[in-house]
Amino acid sequence: MYEEIARNKRRTALVILGALVFAGGLGFLFSWLILRNGLVGLVIALAISAGLSLWSYRYGYRTVLRAARARPVTHEEQPRLHNVVEGLAIAAGLPKPDVYVVPEAAPNAFATGPDPQHSAIAVTEGLLGTMNRVELEGVIAHEMSHIKDRDILLGTVVATLVGSVVLIAEFMLRWFWWGGGMRRRDDRGGGEGFLILAAVGVVLAIVAPFFAAMIRAAMSRRREYLADAQGAMLTRYPPGLADALRKIAADTTPMRAANNATAHLWLNQPSRVPGEGVHWFESLFSTHPPIQDRIRILEEM
Amino acid sequence: MLALWILAGLGVLLLLYIAFTYNRLVRLRVRSDNAWSQIDVQLRRRYDLIPNLIEAVRGYAAHEREVFEEVTRARTQGQSATGVRDQATAENQITRGIRQLLAVAENYPQLKANENFLALQEELTGTESKIAFARQFYNDQVASLNTLIQSFPSQIVAGWFRFRPREFFDIEEPARGPVTVQF
């Protein structure tokens, strides 16, 4: 377990370093293409991405919670949820995380925060409605294991950085689309250089999300199995989580808050498309192991 | 001369081992203490809830005096218990008493539908499972501490500094399983 914590901290540092190199390279490329001087862009991009990384490390979890439209709830509003969270925090020897509810009908949950002292667990209204106490304990135990292993640190930093990359890529795509069109009509020179620039921008905009998806898929699958196992050790009752996962697998309600930047944080991959399972396009960004495999392993414990 | 150096080196290693083992023993003892105080917090919480439960049920089933007295007696016993084993015995009695009270309440639909009673029931169930989780954590810590105290060669260091093995907190598990028991 201590190796897991060390590994997660190391990977977080690597991801931040990777983001710095990626952003620095982008900045250098663009400012060299525009100003024929790469240094200006390099410095600006490094400064921005360093600030962003620091911010995502300290405050990223608030953004993640806001992106899911999670709302803090009091003990009086949700006594059962609060009691279960507090109980499993005791079982794991951790301080009690903040408790949030997400207004979604699909049953799902996630945990976020830089460390166990500043952590939050959010569950959907659908989860509260469909799970009995034992199943809820299974789900919360899984999330508590993510908190204990610092998976939440890596997950939150990746979510905010990936979110920014996606945002910047989309912004650039739009800028080239509209700005490019106007400039061409103006025809005030620089046409050739601008076309190269536009091409690079479009390629980046297309590649960036896939790049981001690959990072996420690599980090997330194994640790889901691990959190399942550790969660089962906390409750000493593997069928609880297995039953919960079975209910989640049977539920096909789509999730409005589903997006590619935060998908890996959830208990099970959220889907925006109604109907059986995950849409083929979303499975390209697959962040979780197949739920049937997770259930089978829990049943064999 | 060489022999002297080797001897000095071995001496330093030995001192390092003793210091390391001592620190680990202290750390585990502190953790066990903390874990025990977690149990204590939850047990107190339950003592506080019991009078409310008795009050609520008494309003409907005043004739069940025996059950009320039994639970009250167990509560007093729990509050004055010294030592892990005494505490566990008293707490098991309390758990059984509370279950009996809730079983009595089961016969009164009006009481069962009462919002305050439902909230109280949730707090009791929640506290009981927190006691179980706190016990689990405490027993894990105690197991690590006892293993270190009893295994060789750390037992020698533990003996010098008078570390004693702790008792496990053995209480009944809350009911769980495919059939969720509703009290």
Radius of gyration of chain B: 24 Å
Structural class of chain B: mainly alpha
Per DSSP E runs of 2 or more residues, the count of β-strands of chain A stands at 4
Number of strands of chain B: 0
Task: Specify the number of helices of chain B.
Answer: 6
* Mean pLDDT figure of chain A: 79
Class from secondary-structure proportions of chain A: mainly alpha
Mean pLDDT of chain B: 85
Low-confidence stretches of chain B: 177-183
Strand residue content of chain A: 5-15%
Major pleated sheet of chain B: none
CATH structural class of the domain at 38-160 in chain B: Mainly Alpha
Task: Tell me the series of helices and strands of chain B, N- to C-terminal.
Answer: HHHHHH
Q: Kindly report the CATH topology of the domain at 38-160 in chain B.
A: de novo design (two linked rop proteins)
Number of domains of chain A: 1
What is the rounded distance between the termini of chain A?
19 Å
If strands are numbered along the chain, what order do they take across the biggest sheet of chain A?
1-2-4-3
Portion of residues in beta strands of chain B equals under 5%
Which keywords apply here?
heterodimer, A: 301 residues, mainly alpha, 4-stranded mixed β-sheet, elongated, B: mainly alpha, de novo design (two linked rop proteins), 6 helices, 78% helix, disordered C terminus
How do you describe this structure in short?
The complex is a heterodimer of chains A (301) and B (183). Chain A is mainly α. In chain A, 69% of the residues lie in helices and 5% in strands.
Give a topology summary.
The complex is a heterodimer of chains A (301) and B (183).
Chain A: H1 2-35, H2 38-67, E1 71-72, H3 79-92, E2 98-102, E3 109-112, E4 120-124, H4 125-130, H5 133-148, H6 151-186, H7 191-235, H8 238-250, H9 280-284, H10 291-300
Parallel strand pairs in A: 2-4
Antiparallel strand pairs in A: 1-2, 3-4
Helix pairs in contact in A: 1-2, 1-6, 2-6, 3-5, 5-7, 5-8, 6-7, 7-8, 8-10
Chain B: H1 2-58, H2 65-80, H3 84-105, H4 109-113, H5 115-150, H6 154-160
Helix pairs in contact in B: 1-2, 1-3, 1-5, 2-3
